[in-house]
Amino acid sequence: MKKMGLIAATAAMTVGFSVNASAADTLASVKERGFVQCGVTTGVPGYSNPDDKGNWKGMDVDVCRGIAAATLGDADKVKYIPLNAKERFTALQSGEIDVLSRVTTWTLTRDSSLGLNFAGVTYYDGQGFLINKNLGVESALELDGASMCIQSGTTTELNAADYFRENNMEFEPVVFDTADQTVKGFEAGRCDVLTSDQSQLYALRIKLSNPSSAMILPEIISKEPLGPVVRQGDDAWFNVVKWSLFAMVNAEELGLTSKNIDSMKSSKNPNIARFVGAEGIKGTGLSLSDNWAYNIVKQVGNYGEAFDRNLGTSSPLKIERGLNALWNKGGLQYAPPIR
Amino acid sequence: MPSDANKSPSAHTTRFWHDPAKRAILFQSLLVIAVLGFVGMIVQNTLHNLESRGITTGFAFLSQEAGFGIVQSLIDYTESSSYGRTFFVGLLNTLLVSALGVVAATVIGFVMGIARLSNNWLIAKVASAYVEIFRNIPLLIQIFFWYFAVLRALPSPRQSLEPLDNIFINVRGLYMPEPIYGDGFGWVVVAFLLAVVAVIGIARWSKKRQDETGQRFPLFWTAAGLLIGLPLVVYWIMGSPMTWDNPVLKGFNFRGGMTIIPELAALWLALSIYTAAFIAEIVRSGIEAISSGQTEAASALGLSKSKVLRLVVVPQAVRVIIPPLTSQYLNLIKNSSLATAIGYPDLVSVFAGTTLNQTGQAIEVIFMTMLVYLTLSLLVSAFMNWFNTRMALVER
Amino acid sequence: MSDSAKVTDKLLPDLPPPANSTGFIGWMRMHLFSTPANALLTLFAAYLLYILMVPSINWALISADWIGDSRDACTSGGACWVFVYNRFDQFMYGFYPEVERWRIDITFVLLVVLAAWLMLPRMPKKGLVSFITLIIYPVVAFFLLYGGSFGLEVVETHKWGGMSLTLILAIVGIVAALPFGVLLALGRRSEMPIVKSICVVYIEFWRGVPLITVLFMASVMLPLFVPEEVDFDKLLRAMIGIVLFQSAYMAEVVRGGLQAIPKGQYEAAQALGLNYWKMMGLIVLPQALKLMIPGIVNTFIALFKDTSLVLIIGLFDILAIVQAGLSDPNWLGFSVEGYTFVALMFWVFCFGMSKYSQHLEKRFHTGHGAR
């Protein structure tokens, strides 16, 4: 009897809170609901971090904004749901979020046995090491016996173990729940090394009270392609997320930016005309409005702009484009053509 | 309540919902159906959800290679051990910190509880300030505080403190020599066991003698002498079959020896101090519950002050103290799960944390974790109940 | 009678006691230095207090900075309360939009008024007010905080945070757990074997597992338990976990209250021909609930402290939000101030409530006479 009462009570409360139809057709429910539910980190500068007003900023956040611009025509129609590493997949599986854009590494296990699909790569990353300068270490191979701060529940934990085993070295893992705590542990001297994806190391380094006291070692010990994730079995939504990302990359390749896209709208270049929805397949295949790609670039910007603003030279992180430059500029960012 | 009390003699003539006995059966069947239905619904939903989302299920993951390191393990563990082994590593670490915590909390708690009743004003006030401060601040904050306070206070490995030879203290932990047992050490263990058996025998004999003749036997000193002396003698006869593995600074850290990691120290400290504040209150009220007539009567019999405490007050107070003390022990064991906040590798941190994340099998992992705590709770309550019955007043 | 001069029919005034047994010195001799061992203890404790208190007070109060806009305002070397001062609003309200914060204020002011009404012994119509507090107020509070009707803008629960979230979690936990606790306690004392065993299993299960695993379960497993199309808000999941857990503890408090009611009350009620629910609802529970209040307050204190665990499942309660503030690059290195502030907040609330509960215990105790 009590249990039945419980159900009734929870049901009553649920009505008040939110009933998210996580049925197969995510795109339709997003349109009906009027906003995209996007899972982000609880705070990694450059990727997703709330500012002091509580507005979310970062590369992963811009991906969400792009998806909202494409589906709803308004990049601000996003509800951000901060998740820690442990909860992120369940939140997606259970339908609490529509897309997970949370520095998540694409691996076989995650793609195959968790019921998830990775929609692309927003950032090609690799695991690196952050170390105190005064230890005088130049290479990761000198780290035998070191204590290492790691965030739990990440691929980092496994890569580190693999790397040290491979090189016949020992290490002492000190595992924390959140990125913030790893930094605090590192700062307090609990460990010699902090290991994480290299881009995050740059982000975490600015959280040290004296960032210049620490340096990032040159070795990269793993491949960490980070990208947005959706539920398996909903191909229409999978396509929307995938092509929102591709549109940002294509826009950079075509030289379209948030500033010039209005003037380029009437361009004679057939690639640009197809991009802004004046010609070609437009939005029909994706069940989106014809100007979906235009909306992304107009409201969020192209991939290069987003990178620069959040991670690159205009940000405190100052990360080089490196692998994340366009394919025709020596990087790996390559998007299939819009036609 | 009503089922028996209201039982009407003419039950067969009333309608069945007016008959409490039948109504009880009906009500209980409905409840069983509701509970079963509810559980069934959950199981069905879960199975359906797992299948439709393509999530792997089952306990096969327990034999897969874990692939991650754990900082402290009481049993052999390497990165190539299985997920099943991480379960035991976590469980043992939980048991370790709980056992240490129970001992320390009891000691601090009794000292503080008695201090609160001290006739020394300052001591009583300090003890009650201790109680009021520590029991009104969430344990999680205290754990964070001790952890970062401990870390901040300690030097880096290269500037380690060395209070005694071969014992080092630094921010990575407390390093001590580890005993390496050589051939023949088994005999020392045998000697110790023999001493234990002998002590039990002597204890029985002395109790019997006291019951018969009233003479007391210096049991404590005999027992201490046997338990320490006998193994020492055998150890010396066997030619000291034990060597020490000393910690040595190599590269970043000390290698070799035994280590107490700062996470363990901080968690232990926080758990003991927090729980001791509650125990102190229990001890105080337990002692206050003994009527002053008992103390006065004992003094009137000419017992000394320490004997009054030892033979009259404490044995009676213990009876009042044990039940709430049990629930404090249980709380301490459950609270040790907060280890995950500072990365001490207990069951929740290792198994319900890292292993859950790497395998994604939430249901199996959480189920096993809850089962462990439940079993621990039941075992501790059972033991304390047994102890309580032994201590209980034997009334005619 | 030459001695007659010495006879007086008036009592002489008592001589004052020896100087060293009265006043401050006498008190010191009695309470601080009664034996050599005691004197040593006193000196030791005094020394300990001196080395602990003097630097702390100096750091926290005397050489601390209080007001400013940035860390540059912290110049005197003591605590930098500027950090707390600047973020105080965020610590209280979380990410709740600034223009809507009056809604939180009203919600809590209402609560304080209702609670004060119930706590003050002399106020009339307690029954009506309890009904309003337990039934109507939660609904009003929900619409105030969440919005979505009456022209109030919706404020998503992931924007809730800080002290207000801590309080919401604890209050919801207690208020929602109370009815379940009553049912479970009645079930546990029932003579129907199946009802009794189900309740015992339920209570002992939740009391046997740590809250943190319950929260993990709520955050990770609950979504798998419900049909695919239903989804819970993260905060709601945490609340469900807390209520499931708390109702078991509440049941034990209620059971304690029920046991304190003399058997004569039950028998008298039955003799009047009341059925089970009428007997419980009209006779036993009203008396028992009064006795339970100190127990409920104590459970509330425990839960209030335990809500800090929601940090581990990623909700921004006051502890989590202070930690988030500590990692702001502009305010690095003030963790002692941050944690001290949180500890102080919790302490003030818990200490106040525990004093209140002790006061109640005394009041009820005398009311019931010798037991």
UniProtKB/TrEMBL annotation, chain A:
SUPFAM superfamilies: Periplasmic binding protein-like II (SSF53850). Coiled coil: none annotated. It comes from the Bacteria. The keyword Nucleotide-binding does not apply. Residues 1-23 form the signal peptide. The keyword Transport applies. GO terms for biological process: amino acid transport. InterPro entries: Bact_solute-bind_prot3 (IPR051455), Solute-binding_3/MltF_N (IPR001638). Residues 35-264 form the Solute-binding protein family 3/N-terminal domain. Keywords: Signal, Transport. Belongs to the bacterial solute-binding protein 3 family. This is Amino acid ABC transporter substrate-binding protein. It comes from Oceanospirillum linum.
TrEMBL record, chain B:
It is found in: Cell inner membrane; Cell membrane. SUPFAM superfamilies: MetI-like (SSF161098). InterPro entries: AA_ABC_transptr_permease_3TM, ArtM/GltK/GlnP/TcyL/YhdX-like, MetI-like, MetI-like_sf. The chain crosses the membrane at residues 25-43, 55-75, 87-112, 133-154, 184-205, 217-238, 258-280, 365-387. PROSITE patterns: ABC_TM1. Keywords: Amino-acid transport, Cell membrane, Membrane, Transmembrane, Transmembrane helix, Transport. One of its GO terms (molecular function) is transmembrane transporter activity. It is a multi-pass membrane protein. Signal peptide: none annotated. The keyword Transmembrane applies. GO terms for cellular component: ATP-binding cassette (ABC) transporter complex. Residues 91-384 form the ABC transmembrane type-1 domain. The keyword Repressor does not apply. One of its GO terms (biological process) is amino acid transport. Belongs to the binding-protein-dependent transport system permease family. HisMQ subfamily. This is Amino acid ABC transporter permease. It comes from Oceanospirillum linum.
From TrEMBL, chain C:
SUPFAM superfamilies: MetI-like. GO terms for cellular component: ATP-binding cassette (ABC) transporter complex. Gene3D superfamilies: MetI-like. Residues 163-357 form the ABC transmembrane type-1 domain. Keywords: Amino-acid transport, Cell membrane, Membrane, Transmembrane, Transmembrane helix, Transport. One of its GO terms (biological process) is amino acid transport. This is Amino acid ABC transporter permease. It comes from Oceanospirillum linum.
